[in-house]
Queue: 4 jobs
Job 1
Amino acid sequence: MLDKLTVMPQKSQELLQMYISNKIVDQCEKLQLQSATITKYVAEVLPGKNQSALSAASWARETVIQRLIFVRNVCENEEQRLLEKVHTEEERTHQSILTQRAHWTESLQKLATLRTYLVDMITNLDDHGLVHAEQEIFERTEAAEGILEPQESEKLNFNQKCVQSPLLHRLWASTVLCCTTGLEEIRVDEKTISPRLALSEDKKTLTFSPKAKTYPDCPDRFDHWPNALAAKAFHKGIHAWRVSVEKSCAYKLGVSYGSLQRKGPGNEARLGYNSCSWVFSRYDKEFRFSHDSQHQTVELIKCPMQIGVLVDFDGGEVLFYDPNSCIILHSHRETFTEPIYPVLAVADQSISLVQ
């Protein structure tokens, strides 16, 4: 009986050892297969991937170079064309000025000669002689009356339109508005926000509030229209910023003078309805540019998610741009006579200045 009990554990131990041995063998086979797979990957796949990466990098590098060469050539050709137009316009203006100078110099000589003649008549002739010379004096003075006074003429002014170029315009706007280093750091002046607006802590997001909020009374605050001005004004140079508008179906954005009226429901404080503001606006699916109650419809295929604003103060231009599609939405020429502020208005959801 004892012998039987001793044999049973020995068999169990042998079975256990066999089981463990089989497990180890299986594991070794798996490791061998895994090693073979890795070896094949390193020997066959990685070299192919490396060659593929080298080829792709070479293609990408060549694409960048070729496209930039093309752009550079186009820009150089456009530069040459525009500079030639500038030179031609400069020559035309210069020639017009020379022609005018010669004309008026001759006129001055005629007038001086006539004056000398008249003074000589008065000095040397008696009354009888003056009466006798009346007809000659009349004819000479009548000729002088035909010499008109100089008038302002556009022919004497350099025509800035000679440098208008859709290509240059688009490249310039794209470069400024699509390069984040060129964007201004704009923040809303909380003293100007309408009671219909709420301002985020970072002073970049305006949210429309159907119920008027209570803010401290301030002469700078808009008390009726849902408007707000930025804290900083621009009085020279080129400036650009972006506004996220994807959440709103009713907004305005652009620039205005600081002298814009702040109080009351009249057009003096309504953006785009006075001579102090220039804005791009959306109402549902209608887009337009407005200034001094003059409205221009802007036809868009889809609603922009962002709108870039580009101002050239010295060049006298405000431009609205879709940075996602690289499309100029509208451009307006204006001679700015006061510092201008970025201006915003929203009557649905929220809009935000993009960091």
Note: Residues 1-147 form one domain.
Job 2
Amino acid sequence: MASPERNKQILLNLVKQPSNDHCADCGAPEPDWASYKLGVFVCVNCSGTHRDLPAISRIKSIRLDFWDDSLVEFMKTRGNAAANAFYEKCVPPFYYRPQEKDCVVLKDQWIRAKYERREFTGENNFLQQGYSSGIYEGILWKKGKDNKQFLKRRFLLSETDFTLRYFTNEDSKKPKAVISMKDLNAVFQPEKIGHAHGLQISYLEEERTRNLFVYHDNSQEIVSCFNAIRATRFAYLKNVYPNARDSDLVPLITRSSVKEGYMEKTGPTQWEPFKKRWFILNLTDRKLSYFKTLLDALELGAVFIGTEGHGYSVRESQPKGSRGGRWRFGVTLETPDRQFVFLCDQEQDQREWIEAFKLVISQPMLPQHYNTEANMRRMKK
């Protein structure tokens, strides 16, 4: 007869092992759930997708559920390391592996690709063609430039010339825009866009950031589109840096912002009225971009963030003489050219923005950052 307490203790010991102490799918620490069909330990969030795949995976809590002796013995012979060695054997280097804080659609499709479709075991490599063939064509819903409507647009991605094109209708031969992979970025923004599959595509247009907000109702399709973009960006980077290692290029494929949100901003004299703007702070290019609203297509302006040694600093305060806005929690950013004053709605926002600025300022500048700084200064003249 199974001993519940003994089996529970065995499972608790197993989940403490180095290969099992993080979720097999998203890397979240201290997983409390396990699939007794796959032999993996997973977090509570990933366990939800596993429950949706009863033919592939069966889930139990390692603390709360009853475990039969045979199931515990099975878990002892498996584990995350062995499972991932099989199910992740052939993951392309560009393919995005979701982390704990990533959105649901990324984690859901990663789990389905791993276990349900077995895209990475070496058995079904043809299933990777949707995002690794060097070309992607599909219909996405894109937010209109001057309104809130989302309209169907045809997108065409090509490794041949490292571009992303989109067309105003399915039959059009002349693209509305031809976007180079050089500065393109893609990141999921479901809350911001208001759709669970919302994807933000950003690029530079005459040195100013332009955003496209898109989605697809099919979760597999939008994640395939995202990974197709990553595949093309990766091919572009390998073309530009032929001697670089894959491990050095992968972090450069796409990027997430350090911090996003509304702040109020005043002008250079600090006597201008404060205006509410949506700010995005990126570490990769060390830019603080600002937009009129969170779903604006075109950047209003940007501030380069250098290091302390180059005259950049941030502090909590509001210099005297600045005309107050509706918000009261100030952030002052010092640059060699001028002082910027921002106001936050909440004290927590103020602390988070200051920490985000400090993070960027603390990182050493790379050669490309000096070019970015010079270009931005030239644009302001």
Note: The first strand starts at residue 33 and ends at 35.
Job 3
Amino acid sequence: MVGGNASSVTDFILVGLFPEFQHSIILNFVIILIYILAFLGNLLLIVLIWGDSRLHTPMYILLSQLSLIDLTLTSTIVPKTASNFFTGKRTISWIGCGTQSFFFLMLGMSECLILTLMAYDRYVAVCIPLRYPIIMSLRFCLHMVAGCWIGGSISSFIHTVYPMHFPICGSREIHHFFCEVPVLIKLSCEDTSVYQLVVVVTSIVLLVVPFSLIIASYTLIFLTVLRMSSVKGRKKALATCSSHLTVVSLFFGPNIFIYMTFTSSHSPEQDQALSLFSNILTPMLNPLIYSLRNKEVVAALMKLMGRCGVS
């Protein structure tokens, strides 16, 4: 290797975030700011949930897992993107690309399952509240959380190892700001249509099916809420469920478009814009969406601030 920009023949080149954009330095500073806010916001939410015994319930345990996923997801993408931009070194090794792709897929797939569990938790709490302590026991919740992480890891491993071994005959330039399966497929010089069909089938299992279950759960919830005689109970149920539905829409919408359509049907700019929205902006919004309309989380925050004030 000669010089600072030399790289191995197996390295990939990450073009970066909107390379043709004239004010790219401003954009990257904004991305870093969003990352910092997302990191701190999700970290604070995790600390509040695990630091307050009143929040040691299935709903908040699942919420803490969502925050952990968002915190880790942004940390998988943004530091490398920022480092490449400010150092001018746009390369990423074959192992580095595979590692980034693995963690990105694992976290994304785990989030699909966690959001589905959160919808089921709300369905049981609203529609069959008397059986809630039995069905959504702490042990059951922890087992389901472990299942989400294990299922996401196994599926991610398969969908990382297989496309990383596709032969690349031409340019190793990735028109994206991180390593992701759809953009890696575009580099291959062999026919990948069969594998793309596998990706679509996997997306149906991990995106469309969970999304359908979530919609079904909330349809039943809203029908139950409409029959409630208590106005206060109705408002509380709608506030909690509307927050979750907002997060579900922000997450599933862009990902269904990216993974349910063939890679040739959308441009690199579309991939980047949707990934930026789903994987960087949404993790920053999630703590705000869940905390601002949640009295228990706000009370835990006030309690923490009170302790800090006394100290």
Note: The first helix runs from residue 24 to 51.
Job 4
Amino acid sequence: MAVPIAILDCDLLLYGRGHRTLDRFKLEDVTDEYLVSMYGFPRQFIYYLVDLLGASLSRPTQRSRAISPETQILAALGFYTSGSFQTRMGDAVGISQASMSRCVANVTEALVERASQFIHFPEEEASVQSLKDDFYGLAGMPGVLGVIDCTHVAIKAPNAEDLSYVNRKGLHSLNCLMVCDARGALLSAETHWPGSLQDCTVLQQAALNSQFEAGLYKDGWLLGDSSFFLRTWLMTPLHIPETTAEYRYNMAHSATHSVIEQTFRTIRSRFRCLDGSKGTLQYSPEKSSHIILACCVLHNISLEHGLDVWSSPATGQMEQPEEEYEQMESLDSEACRIRRELLLTHFS
């Protein structure tokens, strides 16, 4: 006698006819410790994401038995924090590996749609001053609106002919330009730049450059390392410090700029899909860029919720390639003047 075999349609499970949800996993049935170990976040944080993203993840269709927003979010968090679509992760929430992939895509797009809500520079004068005060409290560097740097995230080769994503180490990657505040919260994140581009080139082409050049953020500057050009709104370290004031400036600059390096380590540690330990992101550059940005949004939401993002051990195998950069600071005489004035006023 033939035994009938049920063939599950992943789209059927995900979207559903009559929009009934598939709830095989209940948050209230497990401990916070289990949720953190499996999905990287505690219950209340996950509930917040359900409220935030629920409308975007509940799109009625003509099919039956949709996967609930709660389950979709758990599936995506499981991928972001583990870096794999392992069967045990899908089993834990009661869905197939293919459905997990679709859940990750849905949650990623929902987070990307809200990126500007959570990643932005402050606008109110009091908030801007607080930003500067927080940076000044780190090492005595005045006027800092943010620290800037680039980091590479490994991706699969788009195709054999496209070398634009091959970085200086010969690996395919995206070069991500980010700015953070003194707490490590991201103020800007551009995650789509090809890995072959040097940091200075990325900044020259970035929206962030246009914003600062247009004077959108005044009365302050970013801090960047020697891979960037000195600008009126971007202070870099002195290449060869000679005086006591120059050494003090460089020391304060380095101590303050280290916040972005620590932030990169923290993001990689929490979101293991970015750290290379489970291999490269197996997506197109565009989709990989969106996954990185989604993790950046979650990083900032984590900080808003008071989660201790500094506590995880540093991991990661994909470090930023070393760049040979010829400094050309003297080309911007006004930027040189501003830095000299900063040295005389605060470090002499």
Note: The CA atoms of residues 9 and 63 lie 10 Å apart.
